[in-house]
Amino acid sequence: MTHLVRQLFTMSIVLVIVTFLAFALMHLVPGDPVLAMVGEDASLERVEAMRRELGFDRPMIVQYAIWFGGAVRGDVGRSVRTGQPIGEMVLARAKPTVQMILMGMVFAVALGLPIGILSAARRNSIWDAMGTTLAMAGLAMPNFWLGILLMLLFSVWLGWLPALGYVDPFVDLGESLRRMIMPSVALGFSLAAAVMRQTRSSMLEVLNEDYIRTARSHGFSERRILYHHALRNAMIPVVTTIGMNVGRLFGGAVVTEYVFAVPGVGRLVLDSVFSRDYPAVQGVVILMSVGVLVSYLLVDLAYAYLDPRVRF
């Protein structure tokens, strides 16, 4: 419990730092959100009145303090562009992004873990070479380029999958999965490559341990040695890799959503940056920051389950 409280306290500090940096960077972006709202032809008096109404005439640190105080109470403000509450905007856009990220992680583990295990078990074989080549391709290929290739193959040439759009899974689960397969694969392929490389490296290290040689000397099958003795101990670095890449998945979702016309938070944050909608950007930053921090916490807690030697 003490460790959990300490972690939550650390997460709170990190959240404050991240949101403040995002707040400061948005104020450094050229352009005036007030002019974007009232128009370039508005009178100076109207511009100043709107700036005072929105609080943009105050020092940046004061604006952040007021915004953060409201965020703690659950009020992250209203959109400068639409006037809609930020919480409603972000939550409405969060479902497609979260679905795409979760499906991308499932794809990454389902592809990367078996190939990594096979590469380690068949070291220096043709299977190992093929797995290494696939991993290098995944690490080198941008997700938007892979998305375009998938769209060209499965939508244009074969006609198997729809290219664009999103359907709520609570409305039509089958159609939702069909439309999210390609975005999820494009987003999760680089993570799958990282999982492949880390699984192979960890398994090779574990397979050279003394207890593995002891298990072999007792006549255990290679399959049992791999999955019952080696894999669990090799999973800690793999779980760490998955957790550390959640932030990259959020970042990759921004481009992937534009390629596949998915109405998620990635498109929301880009539209908000272009229109200088500070509150909307901050709302998305909070969502992404909390998602990344929670993933780190889950990884931390998973260590004790995977390795009984780990104690908090």
Write a brief structural summary:
This protein is mainly α and 312 residues long.
Describe the structure in your own words.
- With 312 residues, the protein is mainly alpha-helical.
- It has 2 domains: 2-86, no CATH class; 95-306, MetI-like (MetI-like fold).
- Helix content is 78%, strand content 0%.
- The protein contains 13 helices and no strands.
- It has helices spanning 2-28, 33-38, 44-54, 60-72, 86-121, 126-140, 143-157, 173-207, 210-217, 222-244, 246-260, 265-274, 278-306.
- Helix 10 runs antiparallel to helix 13.
Features:
2 domains, single chain, mainly alpha, globular, MetI-like fold, 0% strand, 312 residues, 13 helices
Strand fraction equals under 5%
Radius of gyration: 24 Å
Find the CATH topology of the largest domain.
MetI-like fold
Percent of residues in helical segments? over 70%
Describe how the helices and strands are arranged.
Blueprint: H1 2-28, H2 33-38, H3 44-54, H4 60-72, H5 86-121, H6 126-140, H7 143-157, H8 173-207, H9 210-217, H10 222-244, H11 246-260, H12 265-274, H13 278-306
